Please model this.
Amino acid sequence: MSAPTTHEILPGRLGNLTPEQQATLEEFKKLIIAQGTFVPERHDDHLLLRFLRARKFNIEATNKMFTDCENWRKELGVDKLKETFVFEEEEVVRSCYPRYYHNVDKKGRPIYIEHIGVIDIKTLFKVTDEERMTKQHVLSYEKLITDRMPACSKRAGHHIEQCCTILDLKGVSLRQFANAFGFIKRTSAIAQNYYPEMMGKMYVINAPMMFTSVWGMVKPLLDEVTVKKIVILGSNYQSTLLEDIDAENLPKAIGGTCECAGEGGCQKGEPGPWKDPRYMNTPAEKTA
Model:
């Protein structure tokens, strides 16, 4: 795994805040401490700034988003889920809905891959249900925050808080996408509302003509910052992916050279800094 490229601190992050943004961060922190929604173990300045950026540093709007998130966590029992929820059906689910993390891009961000085109919704919901899938999805985000991102940050030598996502639409049909749309919409809402500003880049590969047409209609409705993060590609996507991802860090199935050994290959292996003892978080660090 080659080293990440030179790091540039983007605007609105620690180390690149305007005086006004710094003052807003401090004011927001005082507000959530006063109202009792601040949890020091989870709410560092990086996280608070993600919420502030999502609401363009408007304190009132940010506080509503933040409070809604904390209420949602309590209702779902996210902290308890981490201790009690067991997803026994993972192996079968993985076979009919392939999604996994696989190494890092050239900026040191974890790469998340979903093969949307091979989702088998009928089989999926024979072995599990939407509620359990949602809980598993939430716990995947929690693990991203407590395990994967810290390991990536240690390896990169600077804070990593965003992912590089690859959505593979190879083989997708309109009917198949329609069947999966409800779950995809629900999980997308969770990401947008409760884990904001964690998408650094998204590549949609093997996009059929129908998707490109739909994207053309949806694009004007999205925030300009979000649009710049999304790249829609057809079947000739490999060279574009390799501009941002080293071939050794990309599965061979989508244009790279990695062929993880063992049963399940790259999908089950999920290689990355989070599997390297040099970068893995200790139990004490996870609760610090």
Notes: The chain has 13 helices and five strands. The radius of gyration is 19 Å. The beta strands are 99-104, 110-115, 163-168, 199-205, 230-232. The mean pLDDT is 91.
